[in-house]
């Protein structure tokens, strides 16, 4: 079994005092490259890049573009920028991440976010679009068509429920867009003058409660087929969205420190209850890191390694270290943790495997194209349903 | 070579990554991937070796269709503009990075933030080509689905840019608190903080590529550069005079609005050699199938039953509003007149259908020996046809290389192109443009 190590970068905004020195450095991609290379050299599988619309104490580059810059300068590590499903067009999300996957040679992932604040909505000049839907949807072309979205689940009409149902639809759209070109659609057939075989490029015809997207993507299928989709399970509705469409779920740090076994059980139960299709969700625990002697009690690398080992033995698939003081803690973490975990038998092979995709590193199966010849003909919405139909929710436990 | 031009005007050079139309020849053995990042890296690095000012990416947000199915004869598909430019910022050092981004299917806050990010990632090399293409066809891919009436496209684009500029201006220094933007207009009602401090260039360089009166006025008022199709001497001079005088009417120094036609080129050992190559390339660009499809733009009918090696269709064009093709920026205004013109030409020169299309649709702008081409470029800029060129090669990714290897040294020799990049230059510096807020030079 693969145990995943991730580093959460750029979370410092939520940490008081983080703005203390030279905030301008955060605008220099070289600063981020230094951090990502530290993680890469220490054998981390991926980094997530924290982002959101609107203000913070600190400057914030758009992480989807920062990730593409970093992709051109790194070789092995997975790169997961944050993109919001509340305000960013799903079509843009799909091609942006597909392109990151092309640039990085199959190392792209998506840290899915919803934008819950009024402040974020004001930046794009609307109220919460998810709540404004009923009137608006009737004016849209195709609104009368049979809906195919994942948002057909019951929502209690509360904000989070709506935003998460919309997120599930956005993920579904991105996934269909990624599959909308079969891998061998480009044929360059001089005899017939055709560059593509148009029968291998597919409309996605998504019609949902929040938006409709015709497709196909303008960007051919990314190297991974499906970049890795990760959702923080920071509410019950978010967990449901993860069950519907993510590859991995992040358990928030307070939940992890409270009762990690119960949290894991809840994820498993949710997968059974909602009949998750395909492989089981990977479950990662968020673990805050305070190794340097800043505010609060610093921990020791040994204690951290102990905590991670405990999580692994409970059945977690990995951890994401949240680095709220990235400058101080990342070097300490990178230098100590790989060796400590190796000594505990958790990462017997910490060596990097250049050339592999992020999916491979995380132990995810190759993504089968839902529109391709290997897809199950009558099941176009679930990821890779053909392979895992027999055991919903419990797929890859070994 | 004389030094007569040494005191002449500098030529601005842009490199257009080959696009999704029949200018791009994919059947040539030299043609590589138009998706792999390696192709973009190689293309950008050859532009940088040639001391170009910028690389340019076009955008289309829905795959083109003809007769109701996806058009399959040209290169199809491309990666996303801004992530590609961000990747290129990491592997180039001097080259400007210009991206086409639509003002209809985006929100100003998000686009402002992304261009500010690209400008930081590239230390001041970002440019935004603001386009307004907005048909219902493309809208089917977006949340906002709908499209704008033609006359509202530029009012949205204007407000879009106004709002973007408010965000760029509102946080001049990361060490101080950001200012709050608040805007209410007919198209947008937004408020909040920018997230990204002021980009190194103040604002990214603004390009515009519309041709209508409203489009030209938008450029005259807002743009640092216009990307135009008017590359021939007569049409170019008329366009140049028109947009420069429009800029002046808006109280701007016309020198601060650069006119840059998109042009094609074929370099040969001699002029004769270049002409032969050009003819061969035109034949590659217009296969029999492509000839039929291009002719359908004029006839607005399904012509698939016609023989490309036979005569032009004998039926008349369909003049109705509904078109057989979708997703193309360019439309033919008077189909009947165009059909009559093609028939006259075919009669006069005794041409087949395909030959007629080759003859009319894809003449390269500059064809000749390196000396001839260099001279023609210098002449065009010297006589105010334009301020420079956006070169559109026909081969991905190596198509720029003959120009870089053979024409660039001549331009440098004649003092029309830099021989090194100035240290730490932004794209504004390369183009000689003022910074926002600066008094006109
Ligand atoms: C040289 C040139 C290049 C253009 N490139 C693009 C492009 O890449 N993407 C796009 O959506 N529109 C493109 N356009 C379309 C224009 O930006 C504009 O939306 C269109 O010409 C309609 O505006 P108009 O009525 O003012 O001409 C281009 C136009 C010109 C003249």
TrEMBL record, chain A:
InterPro entries, A to Z: Diverse_substr_monoxygenases, Luciferase-like_dom, Luciferase-like_sf, NTA_MOA
Sorted UniProt keywords: Flavoprotein, FMN, Monooxygenase, Oxidoreductase
Pfam families: Bac_luciferase
Positions of the UniProt region annotated as Disordered: 123-158, 363-398
Residues reported in the UniProt entry to bind FMN: 51, 82, 235
GO MF entries: monooxygenase activity; oxidoreductase activity, acting on paired donors, with incorporation or reduction of molecular oxygen
Every Luciferase-like domain range: 24-129, 165-289
Record SUPFAM superfamilies: Bacterial luciferase-like
Organism domain of life: Bacteria
Similarity comment: family membership: Belongs to the NtaA/SnaA/DszA monooxygenase family.
Protein name stated in the entry: Monooxygenase
UniProt source species: Sediminivirga luteola
Organism lineage: Bacteria, Bacillati, Actinomycetota, Actinomycetes, Micrococcales
TrEMBL record, chain B:
The keyword Flavoprotein appears for this protein: yes
Residues at which FMN binds: 100, 150, 154, 212
Molecular-function GO terms, alphabetical: monooxygenase activity; oxidoreductase activity, acting on paired donors, with incorporation or reduction of molecular oxygen
Alphabetic keyword roster: Flavoprotein, FMN, Monooxygenase, Oxidoreductase
Domain Luciferase-like as annotated: residue spans: 29-383
Family to which this protein belongs: Belongs to the NtaA/SnaA/DszA monooxygenase family.
PANTHER family: ALKANESULFONATE MONOOXYGENASE-RELATED, C2H2 FINGER DOMAIN TRANSCRIPTION FACTOR (EUROFUNG)-RELATED
Protein name, as recorded: Nitrilotriacetate monooxygenase component A
């Amino acid at each position: 079994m693969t145990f995943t190590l991730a580093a959460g970068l750029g979370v410092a905004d939520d940490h008081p005092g983080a703005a203390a020195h030279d905030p301008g450095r955060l605008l220099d991609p070289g600063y981020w490259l230094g951090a990502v290379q530290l993680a890469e050299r220490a054998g981390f599988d991926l980094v997530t890049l924290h982002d959101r619309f609107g203000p913070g104490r600190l400057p914030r580059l758009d992480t989807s573009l920062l990730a593409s810059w970093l992709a051109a300068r790194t070789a092995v590590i997975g790169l997961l920028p944050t993109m919001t499903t509340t305000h960013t067009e799903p079509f843009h999300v799909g091609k942006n991440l597909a392109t990151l996957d092309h640039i990085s040679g199959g190392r792209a992932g998506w840290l899915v976010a919803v934008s819950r604040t009024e402040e974020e909505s004001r930046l794009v000049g609307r109220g919460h679009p998810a709540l404004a839907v009923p009137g608006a949807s009737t004016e849209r072309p195709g609104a009368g068509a049979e809906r195919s979205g994942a948002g057909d689940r019951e929502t209690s009409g509360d904000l989070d429920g709506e935003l998460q149902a919309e997120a599930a639809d956005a993920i579904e759209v991105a996934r269909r867009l990624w599959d909308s070109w079969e891998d061998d659609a480009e044929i360059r057939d001089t005899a017939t003058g055709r560059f593509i075989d148009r029968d291998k490029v597919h409309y996605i015809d998504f019609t949902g409660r929040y938006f409709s997207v015709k497709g196909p993507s303008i960007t051919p299928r990314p190297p991974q087929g499906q970049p890795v989709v990760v959702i923080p399970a920071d509410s019950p509705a978010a967990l449901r969205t993860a069950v519907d469409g993510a590859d991995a779920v992040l358990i928030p740090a307070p939940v992890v420190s409270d009762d990690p076994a119960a949290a894991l059980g809840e994820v498993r139960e949710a997968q059974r209850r909602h009949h998750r299709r395909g492989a089981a969700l990977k479950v990662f625990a968020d673990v805050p890191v305070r190794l340097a002697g800043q505010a609060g009690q610093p921990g020791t690398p040994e204690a951290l390694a102990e905590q991670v080992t405990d999580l692994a033995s409970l059945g977690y698939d990995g951890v994401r270290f949240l680095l709220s003081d990235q400058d101080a803690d990342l070097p300490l973490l990178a230098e100590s943790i790989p060796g400590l975990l190796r000594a505990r038998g958790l990462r017997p092979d910490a060596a990097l495997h250049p050339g592999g995709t992020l999916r491979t590193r995380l132990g995810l199966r190759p993504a089968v194209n839902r529109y391709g010849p290997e897809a199950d003909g009558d099941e176009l919405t679930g990821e890779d349903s053909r392979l895992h139909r027999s055991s919903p929710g419990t797929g890859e436990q070994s | 070579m004389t030094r007569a031009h040494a005191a002449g005007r500098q030529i601005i050079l842009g490199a257009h990554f080959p696009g999704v139309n029949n200018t791009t020849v994919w059947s040539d053995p030299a043609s590589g991937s138009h998706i792999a990042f390696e192709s973009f890296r190689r293309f950008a690095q050859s532009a940088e070796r040639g001391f170009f000012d910028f690389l340019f990416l076009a955008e289309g947000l829905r795959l083109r269709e003809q007769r109701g199915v996806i058009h399959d004869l040209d290169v199809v598909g491309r990666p996303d503009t801004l992530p590609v430019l961000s990747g290129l910022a990491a592997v180039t050092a001097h080259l400007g990075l210009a991206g086409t981004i639509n003002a209809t299917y985006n929100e100003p806050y998000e686009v402002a933030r992304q261009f500010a990010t690209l400008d930081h990632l590239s230390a001041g090399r970002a440019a935004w080509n603001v386009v307004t293409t907005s048909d219902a066809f493309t809208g089917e891919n977006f949340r906002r689905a709908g499209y704008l009436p033609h006359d509202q496209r530029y009012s949205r684009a204007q407000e879009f840019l106004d709002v973007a500029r408010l965000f760029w201006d509102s946080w001049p220094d990361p060490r101080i608190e950001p200012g709050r933007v608040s805007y209410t207009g007919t198209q947008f009602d937004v408020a909040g903080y920018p997230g990204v401090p002021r980009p190194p260039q103040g604002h990214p360089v603004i390009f515009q590529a519309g041709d209508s009166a409203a489009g030209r006025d938008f450029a005259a008022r807002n743009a640092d550069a216009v990307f135009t199709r008017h590359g021939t001497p007569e049409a170019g001079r008329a366009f140049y005079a028109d947009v420069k005088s429009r800029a002046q009417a808006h109280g701007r120094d016309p020198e601060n609005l650069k006119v840059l036609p998109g042009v094609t080129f074929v370099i040969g050992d001699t002029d004769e050699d270049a002409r032969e190559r050009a003819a061969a390339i035109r034949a590659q660009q217009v296969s029999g199938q492509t000839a039929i499809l291009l002719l359908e733009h004029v006839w607005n009918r399904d012509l698939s039953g016609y023989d490309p090696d036979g005569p032009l269709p004998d039926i008349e064009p369909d003049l109705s509003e509904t078109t057989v093709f979708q997703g193309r920026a360019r439309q033919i205004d008077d189909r009947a007149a165009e059909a009559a013109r093609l028939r006259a030409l075919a009669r006069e020169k005794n041409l087949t259908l395909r030959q007629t299309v080759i003859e009319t649709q894809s003449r390269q702008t500059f064809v000749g020996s390196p000396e001839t081409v260099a001279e023609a470029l210098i002449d065009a800029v010297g006589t105010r046809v334009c301020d420079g060129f956006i070169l559109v090669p026909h081969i991905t990714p190596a198509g720029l290389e003959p120009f870089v290897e053979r024409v660039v040294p001549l331009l440098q020799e004649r003092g029309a192109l830099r021989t090194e990049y100035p240290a730490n230059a932004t794209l504004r510096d390369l183009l000689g443009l003022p910074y926002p807020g600066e008094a006109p030079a």
